[in-house]
Design a protein that fits this description.
Elements lengths: L7 H37 L7 H15 L6 H29 L22 E3 L5 H13 L9 H19 L3 E9 L2 E9 L8
Length: 203
């Protein structure tokens, strides 16, 4: 007696369902990265309200996918990693929102493009520890010009600028470094230029 083979339709249906779950998890991962960017825009003053709608949608989608019987170990691992990342962002964003509500943190500022003293096209001078306004102007300028900022938040971007200033000053003996946003080959880049004389970058 020949063993009974599973119906081909059932196998095809299972594969289709698996592909759909994989796409949903991929979309969720992109949404979490978008949440990070949009919340940083809010903190820098480039967005008027926090991205609560996106935050709520992600939370709901995570809850729905947790209740799905994920047969793939890779899907379960990926979903767990995305959930851990979202929870980390969610906790940090919630804490910063509470600080704003209680008046204990930096308040959202006007649109970065309208702020005087920091022209990211002409160049922003940094001589030692990067001023918060300079960091926000450069970070916001990157986001406004379509550059990918998902690998940075404001604090890590500030640390990056500070490292660059230290390295360039050690190599050249300059007093300050000018950071300027330029477009090359359709991509936005930060150009660093050593300056031998400092001036007040404003703010």
């Amino acid at each position: 007696m020949q063993p009974t083979k599973p119906p081909q339709e059932t196998t095809a249906t299972g594969a289709a369902a698996g592909g759909q779950i994989e796409r949903q998890i991929g979309r969720l991962a992109r949404d979490v990265q978008e949440l990070r960017v949009e919340f940083q825009r809010f903190l820098s003053g480039d967005r008027g309200v926090p991205p609560e709608e996106l935050r709520t949608r992600i939370r709901g989608e995570l809850g729905r996918l947790r209740n799905v019987n994920l047969k793939s170990a890779a899907d379960r691992f990926r979903l767990g990693a995305i959930e851990a990342q979202f929870n980390s962002y969610d906790e940090m964003f919630g804490r910063r929102l509470r600080q704003l509500e209680e008046g204990r943190g930096p308040h959202p500022r006007p649109s970065l493009g309208e702020r005087p003293g920091y022209d990211v096209g002409q160049g922003v001078l940094i001589s030692d520890s990067p001023p918060r306004g300079a960091v926000e102007a450069l970070f916001g300028g990157l986001a406004e010009r379509g550059a990918r900022t998902t690998h940075f938040d404001l604090e890590s971007f500030r640390a990056y600028l500070q490292r660059q200033v230290g390295e360039i000053r050690r190599k050249t003996g300059c007093q300050a470094v000018q950071f300027r946003l330029v477009s090359e080959g359709g991509k936005v880049k930060i150009k660093a230029r050593p300056m031998m004389a400092t001036s007040d970058p404003g703010g």
